[in-house]
Description:
The protein is α+β, with helices and mostly antiparallel strands. The chain has a domain at 115-287 and 329-445: Outer membrane efflux proteins (OEP). It contains eight helices and eight strands. The chain has helices spanning 2-18, 26-36, 38-59, 117-184, 190-225, 257-277, 330-396, 402-436; strands spanning 21-23, 64-73, 79-83, 93-97, 102-115, 232-234, 283-296, 310-322. The two termini are 54 Å apart. Mean pLDDT is 86; it is low at 1-18. It comes from Flavobacterium glycines. Pfam families: OEP. Belongs to the outer membrane factor (OMF) (TC 1.B.17) family. This is Outer membrane protein TolC. Its main location: membrane.
Amino acid sequence: MKxxxxxxxxxxxxxxxxxxxxxxxxxxxxxxxxDNKADAKKAQLKVENSEYQIQEVxxxxxxxxxxxxxxxxxxxxxxxxxxxxxxxxxGTTIQAAFGQKWNSTAGVTLTQNLFDQxxxxxxxxxxxxxxxxxxxxxxxxxxxxxRVANNYYQVYVLxxxxxxxxxxxxxxxxxxxxxxGQYDNGLAKKIDLDRMTVNLSNINTQKxxxxxxxQLQENALKFYMGMPMNSQIDIPQTExxxxxxxxxxxxxxxxxxxYLLLKKQEELLVLQKKATLAAYYPTLSLSASxxxxxxxxxxxxxxxxxxxxxxxxxxAIGLNLRVPIFAGFGTRAKVRxxxxxxxxxxxxxxxxxxxxDLDYKNAKTQIENSIITLxxxxxxxxxxxxxxxxxxxxxxxxxxxLTDLLDAENASTEAQNNYTAAVLDYKLAEIKLIKSKGExxxxxxK
Length: 446
């Protein structure tokens, strides 16, 4: 019995912990997403990987040292035909075999690039690549912020609609109970009671649909945050106080991440063209090697001269010059391809600049219209609520019909839903305006 009680308590604690809700402000949601969402993590990994790319290119400018070794057995030695006069037998030909059945070599080789234009260009390109991925990381973070903020506000709207449906359900239930009481006392018609019952059933259905929509939207928000689906979240009401956003002059598109990314891509293509042109330049390198060789009739390892095996060393130091003369016009074709790619990205830059200007103009217009709509819907909601209160009092006093009451309830519900939708439109327009100004990261500081 005692063990059963303990298990029951543990189960209760587990269930209670699982149902605990995390209060989630927009700032918290964005920070969580930047720390946990796969897109943000992958962008950060690309920045980290760019450091290794720089190290890889830098290695080409550093000395390259290799060790080598070999062991060879020659079952049949190659013979060479030589003139016998060199050995005091003019007019004869001697066929002699050179070499030993066994030979083994071990050595170290060093190579150092002294001049290679492609290496120097590659280093610049690698550093520019790092800057490219840093900007890409910034752009990815902005995209994550935008998605999280949009879904965050959409969850709010649905929760507001759910709260409204619950309030309407309570109000309609009270009115239905009043009509039922009147019907039981012979003061109301059955059709009036039936209409209230149908209306109550419709509100229940709408509430269930909204509950389902809230769950789906919350799941979407958790996905864009990288949050486990079984987490329970709570969004505070203060997050949705509407304060008109300041609309400044047209922002400088040169500060937008999308524009900066394309400019950095243009810089990379310029360096790519230079790297291709480097194929026309000569290259100069220094090489040095030191080797040790052992030869004899048996395997040289661990053998001595008494065994017929002799070891000796040799080394070489040299300069290697390579001068390209003709490559079948292949380099020229590559340079022209690089030119085309460069011109293409330059056109993308012009088009993106126009698109960013368009985004700001549209966002500015949208938020101005949203503010007007929001003010109108707020006034409509106040009037509809006032009308509903008056008609409800008149109905209770027998001065208004049930149809008037139902129409007033529907009008009030519609006005409140319209106001909630207007708040969402304003918030989404606000995010677009902030994005068009390149200030999405300011949402983290709110």
